[in-house]
Write a structure and sequence with these properties.
This protein has helices at residues 3-24, 37-62, 66-90, 97-116, 120-149, 152-177, 185-220, 231-248, 262-269, 271-288, 312-327, 356-372; strands at residues 252-259, 294-297, 302-307, 342-349, 378-379. The chain is of the alpha+beta class. The chain has a five-stranded mixed β-sheet with strand order 2-3-1-4-5, with helices on both faces. Helix 5 (120-149) runs antiparallel to helix 6 and helix 10 packs antiparallel against helix 11.
């Protein structure tokens, strides 16, 4: 056995073990960092298929035969088909019909068409065409994932994907210019394929890590019970609202609302019913707000809203609508006697220098005025 071939056998065997180990690792670091089951299944399938592919390559180099070559082609094309759907899953979307069609076309070209095509160089052309289709679809899938994140790390993965598309395009160009270059194909592939396998694996695992990180950040800024933003998150949002208001010279509003006599709900109907009341009130807040507005739970039964680009009259109408809607929330499944009202304090923020604490204090004073005047009302100025 030539020394170079022996070295490659060692590399392939090592990579097979590496991918097998990665494919069998537990990928749920904690209860708060959950990766969608479909994504995990797809990623495992890719890694274990890659591991099997390196085993087949190992066998093909040790016991050369057309069967081993055909099986290895099928496995490698299948594995890079799986990654297309993995990246779409990581982006939180289903793969488009185009991707399914392109995968079907690539697999059809890679297996039956390539097998039946006469001549080694022609087979390489067919296989290369199939590889380009799959790599291009992978690059587009990663672009979809990157567009969801819009950060440097995701864009770097996208550039890596396009790099390998370029490498296979270069291979095609060389083969068309000089068919005799086919004799160098094995050396080219023996270098490129392990490199690409490691790079794609890095892309998959890095994407999964970024997705888990996003989920953790999302949870850190959310109230666990209601799913609304929490106090820390709304303080960050306030800075964005203030900056936007300064740029557009338009005021925004901070609204504080507190559920009236909420303690009696817990005392009469139990804490589980109290939680249900909070969740339904949170849903009511979200239903009356625009996409550009923010709702947050900042205390037990205390909520804050940030209302973008508003004025006094619009703010008054919004608060009245919230009062009216809250009175009509149905709690008959808890008890027919269970009814809810809320008291509201609001302030219009038209000075970009006003801090969150200043605005919150102003709205909170008005909230207490609403409570003092009999509750179930809003004080906005």
């Amino acid at each position: 056995m030539p020394e170079q071939q022996g070295s490659m056998l060692t590399v392939y065997f090592s990579l097979s073990c590496l991918f097998a180990i990665l494919g069998m690792l537990p990928w749920q670091p904690s209860e708060t960092m959950r990766i969608e089951k479909r994504t995990v299944v797809l990623a495992r399938t890719y890694l274990l298929t890659q591991s099997l592919w390196f085993v087949i390559i190992f066998l093909n180099m040790s016991f050369s035969g057309r069967l081993w070559a055909t099986i290895s082609d099928a496995l490698i094309f299948f594995s890079y088909s799986v990654t297309i759907f993995t990246f779409h899953s990581l982006a939180g979307v289903n793969a488009p019909r185009r991707s399914w069609a392109m995968v079907g076309l690539a697999l059809f070209i890679a297996i039956p068409v390539t097998v039946m095509t006469p001549g080694y160089a022609n087979k390489l052309h067919m296989g290369n065409l199939a590889a380009l289709i799959l790599l291009a679809e992978n690059a587009l899938a990663i672009r979809t994932f990157a567009s969801k994140r819009n950060d440097v790390a995701a864009r770097t993965l996208m550039l890596m994907a396009f790099f390998f598309v370029a490498m296979f395009c270069l291979r095609s160009v060389f083969l068309y210019i000089d068919p005799s270059w086919a004799r160098w194909n094995e050396s080219y592939i023996s270098f490129l394929m392990p490199l690409m396998a490691l790079a794609v694996t890095f892309m998959v695992l890095a994407s999964m890590a970024m997705t888990a990180q996003d989920q953790l950040l999302h949870l850190a800024l959310r109230d666990k019970l209601t799913g609304l933003r929490n106090r820390h998150a709304v303080m960050q949002d306030y800075k964005s609202f203030a900056s936007s208001a300064d740029r557009h010279r338009k005021a925004f509003a901070l609204v504080v609302c507190d559920l009236d006599f909420f303690k009696s709900v817990n005392d009469r109907f139990g804490h589980a019913s109290g939680d249900l009341v909070l969740v339904r009130f949170a849903g009511t807040l979200q239903s009356i707000l625009r996409d550009s507005d923010v709702a947050a739970r900042v205390g037990g039964e205390e909520f804050v809203m940030l209302i973008s680009e508003t004025e006094q009259e619009s703010l008054d109408k919004l608060c009245q609508r919230l009062l009216d809607t809250t009175r009509t929330i149905d709690f008959s499944d808890i008890d027919p006697a269970c009814q809810l009202t809320t008291s509201i304090g609001a302030t219009l923020v038209d000075n970009p220098g006003t801090t969150f604490d200043d605005a919150f204090q102003q709205a909170d004073l008005r909230l207490y005025a609403a409570k003092r005047d009999g509750r179930d009302r809003a004080v906005t100025h």
